[in-house]
Amino acid sequence: MSTPVLEVRGLAIKLPAGADRVLAVEGIDLKIEAGKTLCVVGESGSGKSMIANAVMGLLPRPHVEPVVGSMLFEGEDLLLRNEAGLRALRGSRIGMIFQDPIFALNPVMRVGEQIAEVLDAHASLLPGLSSAQKRERVIAALRDVELPEPELIADAYPFRLSGGQRQRVMIAVALILEPALLIADEPTTALDTTTQALILDLIRKLQTRKRMAVICDIHHPRFRRGGEECR
Ligand SMILES: Nc1ncnc2c1ncn2[C@@H]1O[C@H](COP(=O)(O)OP(=O)(O)O)[C@@H](O)[C@H]1O
Ligand SMILES: [Mg+2]
Deepest in the core among 61, 108, 119, 169, taking most CB within 10 A? Predict the structure, then answer.
């Protein structure tokens, strides 16, 4: 059996003093291998997003932070990484998509420029990438998420796009550097039912093609096939 992409053991995350409880979550164990899906199930407020943000290193530390446990990503404990170390992983080895793409996109920047920012943030992984090559990577990423006329979309501002198209752009951002792990935190809550199904099918298709592990907190028949569950 291969090394899991992510293995969380005994994780507990503390909340600030005065919160409704001391720990947001405790005793969390989960394990996911390449190409597999893990659905995290639990009622609203039970801490699913907390776990996702902990893996991404996006908790507002020190107010909210992991207090015990370990999170082995590709065999290395994420809790031992400093902020720069976590930043290097975010967007490259670990991608994340959120509930509402409108808040994740900058309204005054063209879609293509926003995708290119990921390449700039991880420029050391792509030495000597020319602007033309960067543009090609952006267009390819938009094509991967099956957006029609990717050149036009790259030059558009987010308000020109539908909700489903915006979520596709966010998926393009999350996947452009081919992460080993995609964390999807309610990726379809803000979308209508038909679009939800299309987006989930797209994530599935890309997951298979790229042999990517996916952690998702939604319970949808499209995601249960071949997936695993944990509470
Ligand atoms: N800054 C904070 N101060 C106090 N409590 C917080 C804070 N952030 C989160 N929480 C607590 O964590 C819970 C949120 O968990 P969350 O991961 O968003 O749940 P889920 O994603 O499962 O709906 C809230 O119910 C609240 O109790
Ligand atoms: Mg949540």
Answer: 169
pTM tops 0.70: yes
Domain 36-58+84-230 fold: Rossmann fold (3.40.50)
Please name which ligand lies nearest the alpha carbon of 53.
1
Please check the confidence at residue 203 and state whether its pLDDT lies above 50: yes
Distance 16 CA to ligand 1 centre (A): 10
Domain-by-domain residue ranges, the chain?
36-58+84-230
pLDDT digits (tens, 9 = 90+) for 23-66: 999 999 999 999 999 999 888 889 999 999 999 999 999 999 99
DSSP H stretches of helix in 145-217: 150-154, 163-175, 193-210
Hunting for tokens 């600030």 — which residue is that? Answer: 16
Which one of 46, 56, 63 would you pick to mutate in the ligand 1 pocket, going by the greatest count of ligand atoms within 8 A of its CB? 46
124: CB partners within 8 A, 6+ apart: none
Query: What is the rounded CA–CA span in Å between residue 152 and residue 148?
Result: 9
C-alpha 27/C-alpha 39 separation (Å) is 17
If one residue of 20, 43, 98 were mutated to test the ligand 1 pocket, choosing by the most ligand atoms within 8 A of its CB, it would be: 20
